Amino acid sequence: MLMRTDPFRESFRDLDRVAQLAFGAAGTLARPSAMPMDAWRDGDTFHVELDLPGVDPRSIDLDVERNVVTVKAERPPRASDADLIAAERPRGVFSRQLVLGDSLDTERIEASYDAGVLSLSIPVAEKAKPRKIAIAHQDERQAITS
Fold first, then answer.
1. Which residue, 65, 105, 120, 133, could crosslink 125 as a Cys pair with Cβ 3.0–4.6 Å?
2. Mean pLDDT, residues 101-122
């Protein structure tokens, strides 16, 4: 499962995202831009989709350390000297960290990028899947020893 651990940190991050959208600030390594995300569980797989429209797939960096998945990407600034009429699409560095619970298997994460969406599939760890445990009955023990 995806875990959020610090509500104050998330609140400040949300305020940063609103400010970046309002003022058009470009993301930097120190203050990366927002990366909208959907996450859900379907059976034994946890899915994450991150919006990265217009990002070159070669600029996407996906790292896993213990149970933290870090996604970084970059949409470079325009090289043109033209006068901008509107600049609403964020540019610069994008980053997002996902803290995963111990119930997910980070060794088997699969990632794909299509139509501006980075998709991650993270299977539930075998040790976290529900399983049946046989219960021995007193009658069975006596039958075995007889």
1. 105
2. 94
